[in-house]
Structure formats: C-alpha cells, structure tokens
C-alpha cells in the first residue's frame, strides 16, 4: 500500500497514523516498485502546490506495467484550487500505461488511451496489467 499526500493532508500531522508497512511517497518524483508494478508518483508539499513536477517524472520501467499516481488539478478546469499543475500532453509524454489522479472529487476521464482520470470520491478503479499493458476498469 502506498500513501500519497494530497492538499488536504498537508494540514495535519499524520505521524503515528499511517500504519507500519505503508510506503509514504516523497514530495519529489519517484518510482516505487510494488508487486511487479512501477508506480510513479510525488506527494503534495503545500496546499495549492504550484510545482510543475510531471516533466521531471522518471522514465517508464521496461518490462513492467507503469502507473502514474498524482494529486493534481491538471490545467484547472475542474478545480478552483490549483495543485501540482500539468497538461494532458505532459501526462501522455511520460509514456506510462495509465494515470490515476486525485484532487478533483468527481470521476472524470481525461483520456482513454492511455487512461488518465480522476478516481472521484467514494469510487474505485481497478488497474490490472497484461505484461506491460495497463488496463483500468470501474469497481
């Protein structure tokens, strides 16, 4: 399990709350290897985090399904609170099999190929891999 801080999390001291064994994402772009997957992510540093990190994300890992995980407003058309802004083209340029996004509380799909979209509140996606190909489906 991986914890990626979002803009609401930076207001709270989560020391002792996150269980042992949970990987806590750093605030800089990184790749976390978990269960054969390459998870590419970065945590929010401050509320309304203005950093443009996506161009700095690591290259895809060969022979692994690559999944981008980010708490972002993308270009801001679905949020009044800018957070780790980026463009759809920047997400696609990373070459990952899919991007699962947080920040916008509605389920919104930005792209189907490769998938990029916000999960939304009280919703779940299931990401599965067939070799290096990532598939995303509703639960």
Task: Tell me what you see in this structure.
The chain is mainly β and 139 residues long. It has one domain (2-138). Helix content is 4%, strand content 34%. The strands form 3 sheets. The protein has a 6-stranded mixed beta sheet with strand order 3-4-5-6-8-7. The longest helix is centred in the middle third of the chain and has 6 residues, at 88-93. This is Metallophosphoesterase. InterPro entries: Metallo-depent_PP-like. It comes from Corynebacterium wankanglinii.
Distinctive features:
Metallophosphoesterase; two-stranded parallel ribbon; 6-stranded mixed β-sheet; mainly beta; Metallo-depent_PP-like; 1 helix
Helix-strand blueprint:
Layout lengths: L1 E2 L19 E2 L5 E5 L2 E6 L23 E6 L16 H6 L4 E5 L5 E5 L2 E4 L6 E6 L2 E6 L1
Parallel strand pairs: 1-2, 4-5, 5-6, 6-8
Antiparallel strand pairs: 3-4, 7-8, 9-10
Please give a quick description of this structure.
This is Metallophosphoesterase. The strands form 3 sheets. The protein has a 6-stranded mixed β-sheet. A two-stranded parallel ribbon has the order 1-2. The chain has 139 residues and is mainly beta.
